[in-house]
Amino acid sequence: MTIEETPFLQGKLLVFQPDEGYRFGINSVLLANFVELRKGEVALEVGACQGIVSFILALRYPHAKVFALEKERLYMECLRKGIEANAFQNKIFPVLGNFKQTCFKPNSLDVVFANPPYFEVGRGRRSPNTFKEVARRDDALSLKELLQGAKALLKTKGRLYLIFTAYRTTELINLLYQHGLTPKVVRFVHSYPGDRARLVLICAQKSAGEEVIVLPPLFIYKERKGDYTEEVKEWLKG
Known about the structure:
The protein is α/β, with parallel strands linked by helices. It has helices spanning 26-32, 52-60, 73-85, 130-136, 143-153, 169-178, 230-237, and strands spanning 3-8, 13-18, 43-46, 66-70, 92-96, 109-114, 154-165, 181-190, 197-206, 213-214, 218-219.
């Protein structure tokens, strides 16, 4: 398996990823443009893979300080190559490790964000590619474990940003409340107008009030098999 260099956002970023296995897609772009980072905040990406979400955030927020946690050594190599190629050494800090045995102190982070696996163990078709299977299914880190860990690491009023399958929205919201994380901003993602929601973007806050903002729906394409919407086009320009 070889590592390929992929120019992205009209050449503003160089991303390194394996020629086989999990490769980033539009979901990463959606999450990166949903996350907000304020000056002085410290953020953690869980399951950073090749680093595309953290890289986009580093472009959006010059003051960004993001720890990118990844447990697979192949993707860690991709991540480190990308950090060097994009001169993000003072913005993004790679951490090789498992979120279940994280080295971060409790109540130490302002923001946690992730694009977690959408399928539970035993559901959906399995991929013969090990890296794709890890990215798609929550064998290694369940949704409950992710939320439990995020709650422990976030400061009071700290924020968790997720992109997840809309099919499990009810489960996700219930689990957030069970772990002391209150949904504060919700945006449903549709492939095109008239299509049912496929994904959901959620910002939850630790120890926060009950008020929630439901943003207008996000459409990826103008129509079925059509061009990207203007909003998504702007994001892809970087």
